[in-house]
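User: Structure tokens for this complex, please. No commentary.
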Amino acid sequence: MITSTTNPQPADFADVRATNLAVVLRFVREHAPCSRADIAASTGLNKATVSSLVADLIDRRLVRETGLTENRVGRPATMLVLDGSPYAAIGIEINVDYVTAVAVDLSGERLLSWRRSFSGAAGAPGSGTADVPGSRGSGTAEVPGAGGAAGPPGPSGPAGSVGQAVGTVAAIVRRVVGRMAKQERQVLGLTVGVPGLVGTDGTVLVAPNLGWRDADLAGDLAKALRDPGFPVQVDNDANLAALAEHRFGAQAGTADLVYLTGEIGVGAGVILDGRLRRGGRGYGGEIGHIQLDPLGPECRCGRTGCLEAVAGIGAVLRHAPLSPAEVEVELEEVVRLARAGDPETLALLSGVGRQLGKGVSVVTNLLNPQVVILGGYYVPLAPWLLPAVEEETRGRTIAPDGGGCRVVASTLGYDAAALGGAARVLDSVDSGRLPRVS
Amino acid sequence: MITSTTNPQPADFADVRATNLAVVLRFVREHAPCSRADIAASTGLNKATVSSLVADLIDRRLVRETGLTENRVGRPATMLVLDGSPYAAIGIEINVDYVTAVAVDLSGERLLSWRRSFSGAAGAPGSGTADVPGSRGSGTAEVPGAGGAAGPPGPSGPAGSVGQAVGTVAAIVRRVVGRMAKQERQVLGLTVGVPGLVGTDGTVLVAPNLGWRDADLAGDLAKALRDPGFPVQVDNDANLAALAEHRFGAQAGTADLVYLTGEIGVGAGVILDGRLRRGGRGYGGEIGHIQLDPLGPECRCGRTGCLEAVAGIGAVLRHAPLSPAEVEVELEEVVRLARAGDPETLALLSGVGRQLGKGVSVVTNLLNPQVVILGGYYVPLAPWLLPAVEEETRGRTIAPDGGGCRVVASTLGYDAAALGGAARVLDSVDSGRLPRVS
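Assistant:
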């Protein structure tokens, strides 16, 4: 089966059976428990085809029969449900000072969630720090030596830095895979999120805060894992967070959704018509360096008045740049003051909210999403930011009522990007990349 | 058949046969002449199914056999090509002072192209001019009475204004349909482009320069045409121009493409992953009122420093506001001065180009398209605007080399939106809305 929103490209002419399997699988997830007749009626596939597809999905242990039958006139029908038990999808987020790992089953149940400290920050200026500063993503602090003081210095240059990350991530993945093996689960795939520009082929063009450039992280990881038997993919962290919101978040299923990371850097993940839109080379979502005010403060990127300079978390804190740990401490103090009604703090947050609203209005005018989700450090500040964000967004959007767009805080916490990595693996299954019969 | 980029929504579970027919039809358009075996091999559909689908397409006169056979080992195969001759798609653009109509056949051949003057401008302030000013689209001049002097004044209020347009357009459509009937062509559908906010259901929420609000133009037109027997749709003119570029333009087939209208108003049509992205309610593409400079000149919308205030055609001309006819006269003078190397004119165009580049960089950072196409009045000015646009875009885009985005002038001329109306009809056919067997 089929979508009527297909565009006429050769890629469309894919393997029909694989796609029909995926269609039936999706139908079962959305409508379980359901019968083979239900599937045939709703998909337009004929009953013999549906029976054959369902048999295949049962062989692959993706779907199982419940034994229950539907209560209706005529011959009783065996009901089908998703069989999540034999599989797991893994998502990893690499950031400047930590690595997060999650695993979920086919239905999205969380199987594990780990965080491990990691000294991945780019070294002192000159030691391989890429020269495209300030790319989106959770680009926490470009402080010389941030995080690096406690960790091993690592070889100079990007390659060394990547090598260190590959070793750390591979070790974590091996532990996750081991844990899954104990549960007799097969790993369907792994997606790693990185704060930087990631091409459509998965190459990390540049990750400024990690000091990486032109890194084939997926290839290196697959090698380190000695051909793990599952696909390894790499993506931008804001993209993955958007996928996580679209599949697991409070706004799950919203067709037009934009996620904004709230860190020292600000990045966007753009979902339109139900799918992530990366742009031609995969470098979309770089909202952080859209100039909101030519006379505004200087940005890390060397320009002035960029969104992240006037509305990133750095605009909220008194002392910048800071290490991520220091950011969290100072953020708690800001929240405490706001709760206590400190007028200066409230005015500051309202001002940052207005600037952020100006940035959000770029999105509402250009893309008209149904919802914009604020993530990262914006979440604890949301009670004080949101009123100003919403007022400014409405005032600056040509369509009445902000084009119907709501602005909300993420409910996924700091795991969002890692969860999105797992979501991307599940999306692959939905698109027809099914596990082989074991 | 199928795409592997389907998203899991109930809408996917459409009629399989209709979609498979469309898949075969698209394959024939892209690969003609081709055999049934070629189709089966590439689509994964089995040969019996392909034979049945092709027979259906031949019955519908969408595909025909050439009589030629492929030169190869084994049984000779009859070759198939598109049969465009029995059909036509109609596109109409309504603007402040003219209505444009085009008709094309199934393969996109232009069958006719008409332009007719039309006094559709909103009346004097207060006579029904909608209060959401400056929506994107070819919003040429909000001059009180522009064009209205020569035309009938029309009843006061939006309804009257819409009624006048419906009468004019219906008359034109009847003539086009008559012409097509003489060629024994069946009309597959009609799409009307309007400069304003058009909802996903086709309702014109507001078209400021026409003075319309909440207009059911499609419904009114269908009534005026007394149930014409083909679908009537309405869309934003920038959206349609983007569709025209995607199907007929020099950049046809580019998956990620943004079209910018260059009029007094500036609007965008956004194509990502091969399809128009309208946003949740259809109000995306409103790039004209993104603020580029808070201290910039006042905009028609009441804010300051909007893209269209600093980089719309009004920023190039000395006298504003002007009627569209006056704009063209003054534009010719600007082109003449630029050609003559007049320093003041060159500096002016370079400055406008820089501002426009700033706006384009919002698009390249957020969406990373492969190409941005400048339309409307930007086209004659392109030789002088483009260098500054490109330099500014590159300088402001975080991804190196502007993310690979080229900025080019449209080659479709002033017919772009009307052509896009016809393109949208052909897109419907591609998506499975095939003509019935007559």
